[in-house]
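Exercise: predict the fold of this chain.
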Amino acid sequence: MELGGIFRITSLTGGTDLDPTGYVLAAGGVARRVGVNTTGDLPRLFAGTYSVGLSDVASNCTVSGDDPRMLAVTEGGTTTSTFQVTCVHTTKLALSSYGSIGVIYADGSNLVTLAAGSAPSWSPDESRIAFSCAGSGGAYDICTVSPDGTALVRVTSEQSPGFIDAAWKPDGSQIAAGSRRGGSLELYVMNPDGSGAMPITRNVGYRGRPAWSPDGTKIAFDCQVDAGNDDICVINADGTRFARLTSDPAADAAAAWKPDGSQIAFATSRYGAFEIVLMSSEGGGVARINGGTPGLDPAWSRDGAKIAFSREDGGCDPDNGCYDSYDVYVMNADGSALVQLSSAGDDHEPAWRP
């Protein structure tokens, strides 16, 4: 005959951006992980009164009522209780990490790995993330996936050379990506399902990392107009009016448009180590941020107030020797309030959710 009683607890969660990892339910020194909308039993406990609570709740979610709460269980009885949780829309970023893409909250919590790949780009309606994924014959394709890691779709499926570095147009109608399908590496635009791929650059030194202007009329990208000199170039989305925005002998790369279209953030080595700088969206007026902010892969927040980027933080230790370590940081656009967002050691290519 078993002694004690059972707590049967329901978690009932509503709102948006539900906690991707669920919660920890605990009472009387025992705990179990539960889903966001589930009913489950805790292991049988001796009759008595216990503090029962949910923990490991995402920062954008709030538990209604008492948490923890005092509940009594009787000998041979079952005590039921419901924890109601409400979650609100929260800021998230996609990133690349150790050969996969993931999503992380803007406070650095709840990193969830979605799929093998790199270079994530959100669809404007937030429902899909496009990214570079491994294709056949050693090539790369463009895949899309839901932000919870489900419904993976390969939108291109060509033999080598394939496509790489996807970027979603702000209105969601097209995806830009690079391919060598015509021989040289060029910039293509295609429908979100991979159909209708057409090159819009020809022999302008396209090198990757396309970035749409906020109004969808232009695409900035890495280029080498002069062999061996990495710069930022731009072209109209219909393939007209190519222009070179930078021409410094140092390396310039990874353009990111400010949401109001007035500026472009990019990474440059013109001051030594790579750092994030700003320039006019027409080119020129290059300005350092806060006297110099080391980093790569800049990405603007949707309101233009913050910039996320990756930074090399390598070091040495007796066990592993010297190593490179990349993590994602967030700062205000003026360089203040710098916060380290991730610490896995190979996190880069951040992309804000629209």
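Check your answer against the key: The chain is about 0% helix and 50% strand.
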